C-alpha cells in the first residue's frame, strides 16, 4: 500500500495507551513487549475470517469487526484465560474510509468492553480477509483443557444453541422465518463467555467453545478425555426466538435439535463438571447473574445396537437415532 494509505490505516488503529494492561511497548515498534505476571501463562489463539468463506461480501463492517474479535475471545474463554491483548492483520482490496471506520467501531466496541488492547498488526492489499490473534492470561494451575473430563461428570453449556446456524440459513434464504433478526444477531454479534470462564476455572474439568457444532466440539473432549457421553435432547436450551419459530411452524422441533447439535456458530462454552462442583458453580453464577444448562453426562463406553457410539442422544430418557455431523471446513 502507498504511504498515504498506510497513514490512513494508522489513524484508525492507533489508540491512546491503556496503562494498567501490562503493555510495555505497544504499536509503533517492531514488536509489542508484554508483561506476564508470575504464576500466569500466556494463552494465544488465531482465527482468520475470509470474505465469501466466513462472511458475506456485503456484511455490515461494524459486525465484521466485532465478530472477528469475538471468535478469538471465545477461544480464550474456553481455556479459562482473561483476555488482555490482540493483534490484527487486515487485507483490504482498497481503502474505503467509511467501511474502515465502521469496522474499527465494531472491533473496538468489543475490545473496550473486555479491556483488550490492540498491540500490533499488519495491513496488506488483496481480497478482503481478517486475521486476529488474541492473547490472554491464565493462572498456571487453572488452565481449562479438553482432556480432563471424567465419567460421571455433567455436561453443561453456557447458553441456547442453534440460533447462529438458523441465522446463517436465514441469510442463505434456505429457511423462512417470522422474525429472522434475533438469529442473524446471534450469528453476527456473538457474545464471548469470558465472564463465565472466570468462574469455570475453579470448577470445570474440561471446556471447549462451540464453533463447529455441539456434537463435533464435544467429540474433541470425548476423544481427548477417552470417554463417552449421553446428551438429553429435551434438555437442550433453545432461545425464545427459536421456540417462537417452532410455535409458528417455521421450524420443527427435530430441525431445532439438528441446528442445536450440528449447526455451529454458537460460541457458547461447553464444559464438563462434577455434580458436586456444579452446585457450587450455580451458587456463584446466581450472584453474577450468569447461568448454565446441564444437557447430559459423561459415560463409560456404551453399545447401541451392538455398535459403540461415543455420543448417544436421548429423548425422555430413551435413546434416539440422530445424525451428528458438525462443520468441517474441508468437506
Ligand atoms: Mg475453539
What would a concise description of this structure say?
The chain is an alpha+beta fold and 331 residues long.
Entry keywords:
331 residues, alpha+beta, 2 domains, 4-stranded mixed β-sheet, globular, binds magnesium ion
Describe the fold and architecture.
The protein has 331 residues and is α+β, with helices and mostly antiparallel strands. It has two domains: 3-139, 2-Layer Sandwich (60s Ribosomal Protein L30, Chain: A), CATH 3.30.1330; 154-320, Phosphoribosyl-aminoimidazole Synthetase, Chain A, domain 2 (Alpha-Beta Complex). 34% of the residues lie in helices and 25% in strands. The chain contains ten helices and 15 strands. The chain has a seven-stranded mixed beta sheet with strand order 8-10-7-11-9-14-15, with helices on both faces. α2 (61-78) packs parallel to α3. Magnesium ion (MG) binds at residues 75, 78, 209, 211.
| N/C terminus separation | 35 Å
The CATH top-level class label of the largest domain: Alpha Beta
Q: Pairing-aware structural class of the strands and helices?
A: alpha+beta
Oligomer: single chain
* Total domain modules: 2
SSE topology sketch:
Blueprint: H1 3-13, E1 23-25, E2 33-34, E3 40-50, H2 61-78, E4 82-92, H3 97-113, E5 117-125, E6 129-139, E7 154-157, H4 163-171, H5 181-188, H6 194-200, E8 206-209, H7 214-225, E9 228-232, H8 240-247, H9 253-262, E10 269-273, H10 275-288, E11 293-299, E12 303-304, E13 307-308, E14 311-315, E15 318-320
Parallel strand pairs: 4-5, 9-14
Antiparallel strand pairs: 1-2, 3-6, 4-6, 7-10, 7-11, 8-10, 9-11, 12-13, 14-15
Bound molecules: magnesium ion (MG).
Magnesium ion binds next to helix 2.
Amino acid at each position: 500500500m502507498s504511504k498515504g494509505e498506510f497513514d490512513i490505516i494508522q489513524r484508525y488503529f492507533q489508540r491512546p495507551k491503556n496503562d494498567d494492561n501490562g503493555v510495555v511497548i505497544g504499536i509503533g515498534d517492531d514488536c509489542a513487549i508484554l508483561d506476564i505476571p508470575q504464576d500466569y501463562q500466556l494463552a494465544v489463539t488465531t482465527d482468520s475470517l475470509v470474505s465469501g468463506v466466513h462472511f458475506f461480501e456485503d456484511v455490515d463492517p461494524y459486525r465484521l469487526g466485532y465478530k472477528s474479535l469475538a471468535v478469538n475471545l471465545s477461544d480464550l474463554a474456553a481455556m479459562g484465560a482473561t483476555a488482555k491483548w490482540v493483534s490484527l492483520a487486515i487485507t483490504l482490496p482498497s481503502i474505503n474510509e467509511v467501511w474502515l471506520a465502521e469496522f474499527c467501531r465494531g472491533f473496538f466496541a468489543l475490545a473496550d468492553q473486555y479491556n483488550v488492547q490492540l498491540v500490533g498488526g499488519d495491513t496488506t492489499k488483496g481480497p478482503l480477509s481478517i486475521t486476529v490473534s488474541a492473547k490472554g492470561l491464565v493462572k498456571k494451575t487453572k488452565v481449562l483443557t479438553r482432556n480432563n473430563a471424567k465419567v460421571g461428570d455433567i455436561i453443561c453449556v453456557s447458553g441456547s444453541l442453534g440460533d447462529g446456524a438458523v441465522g446463517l440459513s436465514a441469510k442463505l434464504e434456505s429457511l423462512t422465518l417470522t422474525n429472522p433478526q434475533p438469529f442473524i444477531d446471534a450469528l453476527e454479534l456473538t457474545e464471548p463467555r469470558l465472564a463465565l470462564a472466570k468462574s469455570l476455572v475453579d470448577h470445570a474439568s474440561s471446556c471447549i467453545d462451540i464453533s463447529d457444532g455441539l456434537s463435533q466440539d464435544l467429540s474433541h473432549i470425548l476423544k481427548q478425555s477417552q470417554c463417552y457421553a449421553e446428551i438429553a435432547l429435551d434438555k437442550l436450551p433453545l432461545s425464545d426466538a427459536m421456540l417462537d419459530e417452532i410455535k409458528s411452524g417455521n421450524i420443527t422441533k427435530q430441525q431445532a435439535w439438528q441446528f442445536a447439535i450440528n449447526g455451529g456458530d454458537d460460541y457458547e462454552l461447553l464444559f464438563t463438571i462434577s455434580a458436586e462442583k456444579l452446585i457450587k458453580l450455580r451458587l456463584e453464577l446466581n450472584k453474577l447473574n450468569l447461568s448454565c444448562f446441564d444437557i447430559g453426562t459423561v459415560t463409560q463406553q456404551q453399545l447401541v445396537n451392538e455398535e459403540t457410539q461415543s455420543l448417544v442422544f436421548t429423548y425422555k430418557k430413551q435413546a434416539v437415532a440422530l445424525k451428528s455431523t458438525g462443520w468441517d471446513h474441508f468437506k
